[in-house]
Amino acid sequence: MPRKSLPRKSLTLTSALVLTTISLAAQTPAPKQQTWRFDNLSSIGGHPTHVLGTPTLIDTPKGKAVAFNGTDSALFVDNHPLAGAPTWTWEMVFRPDADGKPEQRVFHLQPIDPATGKDIATERMLFEIRIRPDADGTPKWCLDSFAAVGDQSRALLNCDKKYPFGPWYRVTAVYDGRMLHNYVNGDLQGEGPLTIPAQRPGHASAGVRINLVDYFKGAIYSARFTTYPFTPDKFLKNPLAGK
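^ thats the sequence. predicted structure below, dont judge the formating
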C-alpha cells in the first residue's frame, strides 16, 4: 500500500516549527556554574582572598573547611559569582556553631557601582541564620535568605523550622525569575514572589556581612553558583551529610 505524503503546507509548517525551536535553543545561553571549595585561606574558587582576622582551616571527613570565630574573622573575594544571571541557584554546605550570636550573616554577594567603586546598597544577596531556642531551651538555628535589586526585595525567614547544631547542612536559594525559594537539605523553608533584574558585578564575603556586622560562628565547606533555577533533585550533593 503506497505511503501517503504530507501536504506541502504541512511540511512547510513542520519545517518552520523545527527551525524556530533550533533558533530559540541557539539563543538560550548555557547555564554557567562556579564551585567554591573552602579548603585554603589564599584563594576560593580560583579567586584570591582578602583575609580578615583569623579564620582557620579545620579537618572534615572529606577534606578541609574554613572555620570562622564569630567575632572578627572573614574572607573577602573580588568576585560576584551570580552577576549577570537573571535566574540562579546558590548552594552552600556549612556547619553553624551553637555558641554564635542570635543573628549572623554567613555569606554575602554585593554589587559595586563602577562609577564610584562603592557598594550598591540596594542590591545584594545573603545567606543568614538566626539562633532560636526550643521550648526546653535547647538552641537551634533557622535559615534566612535575602535578595534585592532596587526597591524590589524578598526575605525568607522561617523559624517554625529549626535545626540542631552539630551536622553539616546544605542550604539553597533559588530564583526562577518570578519567585525566590530557600531550602535546608532540600526541604522547602519559604518562598515568595520577586521580580528583579540580574545583579551587577561586585564582590563577596564569607563569615560576615560586607559592612562588617553580624559575624558568623561556624564553618563553610563549599558553595556552588549556577545561572539556572534548579529543582531539589538537581541540588548539590552534601558530601558531609550526617557528619
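Helices lie at 8-27.
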